[in-house]
Specification:
Belongs to the enoyl-CoA hydratase/isomerase family. It comes from Streptomyces hintoniae. This is Enoyl-CoA hydratase family protein. InterPro entries: ClpP/crotonase-like_dom_sf (IPR029045), Enoyl-CoA_hydra/iso (IPR001753), Enoyl-CoA_hydra_C (IPR014748), Enoyl-CoA_Hydratase/Isomerase (IPR051683). The protein has about 240 residues and is an alpha/beta fold. It has one domain (about 1-170, about 190-244): Alpha-Beta Complex (2-enoyl-CoA Hydratase, Chain A, domain 1). The chain contains nine helices and ten strands. It has helices spanning about 30-40, 70-85, 100-105, 135, 140-150, 155-165, 175-185, 190-220, 225-235, and strands at about 5-10, 10-15, 50-55, 60, 90, 95, 110-115, 120, 155, 170. The strands form two sheets. A six-stranded mixed sheet has the order 1-2-3-5-7-10, sandwiched between helices. It has a four-stranded mixed sheet with strand order 4-6-8-9. α1 packs parallel to α2 (about 70-85) and α2 (about 70-85) packs antiparallel against α8 (about 190-220). The chain is globular and about 55 Å long. The mean pLDDT is about 95.
């Protein structure tokens, strides 16, 4: 079962991706529930900030290949994270793959434990990181991003910080996030909302300009013969036909 756990302490709402049996893959139900939970946060005056975290050993494995969300729903979720009038802080203690990196990029602040690993695995199943490029391209280092998106290589937290996917990393992610959350609790809510608007303006420009085209591209790629072969190979735990 997909689900989103909820907890609240001193103005911070913690939302936990809680579908460890699918490695917190973004299924249609999970995307709907996370969208609803974030929308609640946007209208709750008791929420100063949101922490997005996970259960299990994986923050998010990307799109659920057995029950994927509609591309439009994924765009809506990512934009909601960017537009939310409360800061969204990612707390990562596990692995992040593909679409999960888009979720990470949409957050305002991201911290991870040093055991976490990351990979843009889209090219290895015959698709491209189309929709997740909306929050990703305005925020990440383009040269480093090119290598990782084109090869699908796995990389560590130090590289994720250098790339711009993470704000910070440490052995104890909660110790790293302690001063961050304390700072957010000391900030005026209106000031946080207006400051976030300034910081996310370029990201939202990308959504306004490119979301429709990238949604169409994602749909075409996921329904293509290479993608069918790549996803079948992934589910069957074998190399796809194009591997040399």
């Amino acid at each position: 079962m997909s689900g989103v756990g909820r907890a609240h302490a001193r103005g911070v709402r913690t939302l936990s991706l809680d579908s460890p049996d699918t490695r917190n893959a973004l299924s249609a139900p999970l995307v709907r529930e996370l969208t609803a939970a974030l929308t609640e946060c946007a209208h709750d005056d008791d929420v100063r900030a949101v922490v997005l975290t996970h259960t299990g050993t994986t923050f998010c494995a990307g799109a659920d290949l057995r029950d994927p969300p509609a591309p439009e729903d994924l765009v809506r979720l990512l934009r909601l994270v960017v537009e939310l009038p409360r800061p969204v802080v990612a707390r990562v203690t596990g692995h992040v793959r593909a679409g999960g990196l888009g979720l990470l990029a949409a957050c305002d602040i991201a911290a991870a434990g040093t055991a976490a690993t990351f990979a843009f695995t889209e090219v290895r199943i015959g698709v491209a990181p189309a929709i997740i490029s909306l929050p990703l391209l305005p925020r990440a280092d383009p040269r480093a991003l090119a290598r990782h998106c084109l090869t699908g290589e796995r990389f560590d937290t130090a590289e994720a910080v250098r790339l711009g996917l993470l704000t910070t990393a440490g052995d104890d992610v909660d110790a790293v996030l302690g001063p961050v959350l304390d700072g957010l609790r000391r900030a005026a809510p209106q000031a946080l909302a207006e400051t976030k608007k300034l910081l996310t303006a370029r990201v939202l420009e990308a959504f306004d300009r490119d979301a429709a085209d990238l949604t169409a591209l994602s749909g075409r790629l996921f329904s293509s013969p290479p993608a069918r072969e790549g996803m079948t190979a992934f589910l069957e735990r074998r190399d796809p036909a194009w591997v040399l």
